[in-house]
Amino acid sequence: MTGKTVQVQFQSKIFQDEGDESFDIQATGRLVEKGDALYLTYDEEIAEQPVTKVMVKMEEGRVAISRSNVNKTRLVFEPGLLANQPYQTAAGMMLLDTNTRRFELDLADNKESGKVLLDYSLAANGEVVGQYQVSLQFS
Which InterPro entries match (predicted)? Predict the structure, then answer.
């Protein structure tokens, strides 16, 4: 199950009280179909930060994004979903809440390309820490 090599373009806009940030990442990834799910894996490299291994699991009506470097997160997105999700930090486990307001998953018929568009708020310990807009495209 080696999968197919794809080009990944990931854009993230983060709106926080401390100031806004945006990231635009281009990477080469692997796309694997397993059952009803499509898995996209790639390495995210941002200057002066450890390389982050990213896995995106795409299913009908649901996307899960797992990220691991020093910290580990797995966020699940579904239309209208508000979910408690664990976040492993060096200081221990904490719970994050995602509130998915915009969810678009558009895959080509052959499932060799597609895009994911997400708008969500992220809360830690019940307090909103940021608003996020994510665009992920692969082909």
Answer: Calycin, DUF1934
